[in-house]
Write a structure and sequence with these properties.
The chain is mostly helical. About 45% of the residues lie in helices and about 0% in strands. This is Tyr recombinase domain-containing protein.
Length: about 150
């Protein structure tokens, strides 16, 4: 069972019971300790506490927007269809998502290899996973967008 399953099976129900029981809280995925929808200020506080709890080598300033951007970049780099990523982000235009395709050669690979959630060795040589491709093998040209459904690479 992963963390989200555990949260949904237990803690979320306990938090919801603490709240006013409104429809907004029932529809929300993340709830505050008061049982209300987690607002932007609450998300920033969670991120701030999470960063403070990280080992010093990985600790750096982070914001919810930076985490959103990093997640989207990792999805695109992992081969997800840009249209799917655009929909996840709530972008009306796929052109808005294009920022995740415009990367300096090698910058994305280096960032992914250094990311604490990236599986495999952290060295810059012969790593496995998403960052294994050489900087010259990743095109900076926009990827072809199709209407076919795409499943996450696995």
């Amino acid at each position: 069972m992963d963390a989200l399953d555990e949260y949904l099976a237990g803690l979320r129900g306990d938090l919801l019971a603490r709240g006013p029981g409104d429809d907004d809280a029932r529809r929300a995925l993340l709830l505050s300790w008061r049982g209300r929808r987690l607002d932007a200020q609450g998300v920033r506080a969670v991120v701030r506490r999470g960063v403070a709890a990280m080992p010093g080598d990985y600790r750096r300033e982070a914001t919810p927007h930076a985490l959103r951007h990093t997640s989207a970049t990792l999805l695109v780099a992992s081969g997800w269809d840009v249209k799917v990523v655009a929909e996840l982000l709530g972008h009306r235009s796929i052109a808005t998502t294009g920022v995740y395709l415009d990367r300096i050669d090698g910058e994305l690979d280096a960032a992914i290899r250094a990311h604490p959630l990236e599986p495999g060795p952290r060295s810059t040589s012969t790593s496995t996973g998403v960052g294994a491709a050489s900087s010259t093998s990743r095109s900076t040209e926009p990827q072809e967008v199709t209407d076919r459904p795409v499943t996450p690479p696995g």
